[in-house]
Design brief:
Elements lengths: L1 E7 L4 H8 L5 E8 L5 H8 L4 E3 L8 H13 L5 E4 L8 H6 L4 E5 L11 H7 L4 E8 L9 E8 L6 H24 L3 E4 L2 E4 H9 L1
Parallel strand pairs: 1-2, 1-4, 2-3, 4-5
Antiparallel strand pairs: 5-6, 6-7, 8-9
The structure holds 5-O-phosphono-beta-D-ribofuranosylamine.
């Protein structure tokens, strides 16, 4: 079983997509948050998944909060840490502790537009394609080895909100599939590249 801890900060629709996918060999041990009011926490609790939140305001410094979150996550001894809309930058200690076992979903076609406001930036640059990326997390923000990407067209009438909605539908497909591939042991990291032996197997059959 791949014991998994999911970190969220808000509505948690990607977390819901992963839970609802009922992925073989995946056990969701907990959904954790830096936001006690995150709507996704209540949803997860309603599914019978253990939840917990740490409020950064309860800590004297960002370092103290980060250390507490690291200990909370480590207490579950997870095989996989899944960032599903977790809006904090993980400190280097976290990234090294859970190296090659932390996965993030980011709403752009990386390496374009790391960081925030990805959809508005894609519109401002006149991109004709936008999308999302699932990647392993390293200490460098949104730069880890890419597991999967999905693209959508950008329409002339798009706003950041309409584009976000179109991309989100793809996120909900892409993330559960990437997690399933991780849990099935299909992914191996070679430098910056991720080799997915499920896909390689399909290609060989073509
Ligand atoms: C998603 O767009 C995800 O790519 C980004 O934050 C958003 C979270 O949405 N990292 P949700 O909380 O999963 O609904």
């Amino acid at each position: 079983m791949t014991k998994t801890v999911i970190l969220i900060s808000g509505r948690g629709s990607n977390m819901q997509a992963v839970v609802q996918a009922k992925i073989p060999n995946l056990h969701i041990a907990a959904v954790l948050s830096d936001n006690p009011q995150a709507p996704g926490l209540a949803w997860a609790a309603g599914q019978g998944i253990p939840t917990a939140a740490l409020n950064p305001k309860d800590y004297p410094s960002r370092t103290a909060f980060n250390q507490a979150m690291l200990e909370l996550v480590a207490g579950h001894a997870p095989d996989l840490v899944l960032l599903a809309g977790y809006m904090r930058i993980l400190p280097p200690e976290f990234c090294s502790r859970f190296a090659n076992q932390t996965i993030n979903i980011h709403p752009s076609l990386l390496p374009a537009f790391p960081g925030l406001h990805t959809h508005q930036r894609a519109l401002d640059e006149g991109c004709r394609l936008a999308g999302c990326t699932v990647h392993f997390v390293t200490a460098e923000l949104d730069c880890g080895p890419i597991i999967a990407q999905g693209a959508v067209p950008v329409y002339d009438s798009d706003t950041a909100d309409t584009l976000a909605e179109r991309v989100l539908k793809v996120e909900h497909q892409l993330l559960p599939q990437a997690v399933a591939d991780f849990a099935a042991g299909h992914l191996s990291i070679q430098g910056k590249r991720v080799i997915n032996c499920r896909i390689a197997g399909e290609a060989e059959q073509d």
